[in-house]
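Troubleshooting log. The previous structure file for this entry was overwritten by mistake, so regenerating from the original sequence record. Sequence copied from the archived sheet and checked twice against the printout by T.R.
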Amino acid sequence: MSPVWLVARREIRTRVRTRAFIVGTLATILIMGGYAALMTFIGHQAGTTKVGVTAQAAAVGAPLQAAGTPSASPSRSAPSTKPRARGRCATATWRR
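Regenerated output below.
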């Protein structure tokens, strides 16, 4: 083993065994776990959002209400699967 790896190995082992490294690592793990738990809790909160429509925007009221129902179709369809010409960019085409 080269002298550089011997020194690096000793330095890493020395740092990893310190109390500050262990406490910092455990704190990071707890913070990340708490964040994941919070996001899961917030994600499972079921609720509805009410949107008010003024008289000027009454024309969009029906489409908005239809879009809010569970049976409504998604606003975007699947990307186009048509063969593309050579040398063109291979980006997906989304229909609205």
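DSSP finds three helices and no strands in the chain. Archived copy saved in two places this time.
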